[in-house]
Specification:
- The chain is 34% helix and 33% strand.
- It has two helices and nine strands; from the N terminus they run H-H-E-E-E-E-E-E-E-E-E.
- The mean pLDDT is 87.
- It has 175 residues and is α+β, with helices and mostly antiparallel strands.
- It folds into two domains: 67 residues; 93 residues, Cupredoxins -  blue copper proteins (Immunoglobulin-like), CATH 2.60.40.
- The longest helix is centred in the first third of the chain and has 32 residues.
- The strands form two sheets. The protein has a five-stranded mixed sheet with strand order 3-9-8-5-6, with no helix packed on it. The protein has a four-stranded mixed sheet with strand order 2-1-4-7, with no helix packed on it.
Length: 175
């Protein structure tokens, strides 16, 4: 599912729920013009509360399940091509420097000096993954790179006077 479509669907669901809530408030407001015995109000309130909690109990697992299935994170498992990324003031070095399109890649990212941010942008300039590059530690980023082209690597952490120019490239070739 395209993430733009997911956002539109989510917005439509939110709009429908907001409309339902406004309708409920108007119904309650219009019913306050007559006297209603307290017992009747309490019974209706308890029924409404039970129905509301039951619907929430049913809706929450569905929303969490849909969100978990559409997250952009790696699914794990399977073999991956290891790409070692070393950063330093003010560069990124990758080994290997290219992989074929469709390759599952594990970026092993570290730093020689200070903390840097590793942000990988696809050929269209869209951020597709990020992780911190820290000295003495290796962080991993798992991605499947399907689009051939040159991917840009930019630093996300203010790492010194040359931070603004710190970038690198990584290539995905046609398979």
């Amino acid at each position: 599912m395209h993430y733009g479509n997911l956002q539109v669907t989510t917005l439509a669901i939110f709009g429908a729920l907001a409309l339902l809530l406004v309708t409920l408030f108007l119904k309650v407001a219009s019913s306050t013009s007559r006297d209603v015995p307290l017992e009747e109000v309490q019974e209706k309130g308890y029924r409404l509360r039970r129905a509301w909690l039951a619907s929430l109990a049913a809706l929450v697992p569905i929303v969490v399940g849909v969100a978990a299935l559409t997250t952009p994170y790696a699914s794990g498992g399977g073999s991956r091509t290891l790409v070692k990324v070393t950063s330093g003031q003010f560069f990124f070095a990758t080994s290997p420097t290219a992989v074929p399109a469709g390759t599952k890649v594990r970026f092993a990212v570290t730093s020689r000096d200070v903390t840097h941010g590793f942000g990988l942008y696809n050929p269209n300039g869209v951020l597709i993954g990020s992780v911190q590059a820290m000295p003495g530690y290796t962080n991993h980023l798992d991605l499947t790179l399907t689009r051939p082209g040159t991917y840009r690597i930019l630093c996300f952490e203010l790492c010194g006077i040359g931070h603004h120019a710190m970038q690198g490239t990584f290539s995905v070739t046609r398979s």
